[in-house]
Amino acid sequence: MDLTDVLLLLGAGVGAGVVNSVAGGGSLITYPALVATGLGSVVANVTNSVAVSAGYASSAVGTWPDHRALERSQGKSVRALALTAAVGAVAGCALLLLTPATAFDKVVPFLVLGAVAVLAFQQRLKNLVGHPHELPRTRRTATLHTAVGLSAVYGGYFGAAVGIILVALIGLVMDETLIRVTALKNSLSVVIGLVTIAVFSAFGTAAGSPVHWASVAVLTPATLVGGYVGARVGRRLDPRVLRAVIVTFGTAVGLILGWRAFG
Fold first, then answer.
1. Where are the transmembrane segments (predicted)?
2. Which one of 78, 97, 128, 211 has the fewest beta carbons within 10 angstroms of its own beta carbon?
3. CB neighbour list of residue 157: distance below 8 Å, 6 or more residues apart
């Protein structure tokens, strides 16, 4: 790795940290950067998942007051979502290490664009399926855990735009402000990130997909800085602006993934 590679990864890491905190999809910045340094696609994917996890942590720190407010509003049930996210992330990591990526890669763009559509038309969908507080408590809880679990499976497998998927699905079920939903997204992303670090570090080499630790060492501090900055900026945005940013970037992510899969 030469100086040009280091500078490329530093810039990509800061940008990805900001984007992951505000909208999600920062891996679409770091993953191509890792490939550009000469890593194979699967190794780049595994390395990327480990490296960007630090940015999730700093994002969660930046939005922690909003997460605490959400816990006071929703109760202890919010904490149980962490276990669901962990189980889903383990399943996603296993999917990446044990199965061919081709079929899933072709599904990913539709998952991302579908999540963006849910977020963009969230209020209309709520009117169609019923307002969250109108749903029976048991059904609402089960739906919320299902949404988080499926998002975590995706996050463990690939990770790009997992934040968009989490915000879209959680916001459809949970009657909370977008700022608080984003804070929950950041906290759950930390859980998913920690699981990917543990699984890929322990089993990546055995599965033929080792983590490139030199790249992780460069990207990690950069994503930490970007994640915290993005979290502070995101908290100050008008909810309508934040939603527009997430929808716009999410659409771009979905189209890029589609072009990569079918182009």
1. 31-57, 78-98, 154-174, 186-205, 211-229, 241-262
2. 128
3. 92, 93, 95, 96, 104
> Cα separations (Å) of 204 from 108, 158, 207?
22, 14, 5
- Please identify which residue in the block is written with the tokens 């570090």: 201
Q: Could you give the CA distance from residue 66 to residue 250 in angstroms, rounded to a whole number? A: 23
CA distances from 254 to 117, 150, 165, 168, 174 (A): 11, 17, 11, 14, 24
Can you tell me which residue has the tokens 């780049």? 44
For residues 4 and 254, the model is more confident at 4
- pTM score > 0.85 for this model? no
pLDDT band per the 50, 70, 90 thresholds, residue 217 = very high
Q: Which burial class, exposed, middle or buried, applies to 253 when counting CB atoms under 10 A from its CB (0-12, 13-18, 19+)? A: buried
Tokens of 21: 């905190």
Domain ranges of the chain: 3-262
With 0-12 / 13-18 / 19 or more C-beta atoms within 10 angstroms meaning exposed / middle / buried, residue 236 is: exposed
Whether the predicted pLDDT of 216 surpasses 90: yes
CA–CA separation, 33 vs 56, rounded Å?
Answer: 19
Mean pLDDT of the chain: 84
Q: What would the two tokens of residue 157 be?
A: 């497998």
Phi, psi of 211 (to 5 degrees): -75, 135
Say how many C-beta atoms besides its own lie within 10 A of residue 124's C-beta: 9
Closest to 257 (Cα-Cα) out of 31, 48, 93: 31
Q: 228 CB contacts (<8 Å, ≥6 apart)? A: 17, 21, 58, 59, 61, 62
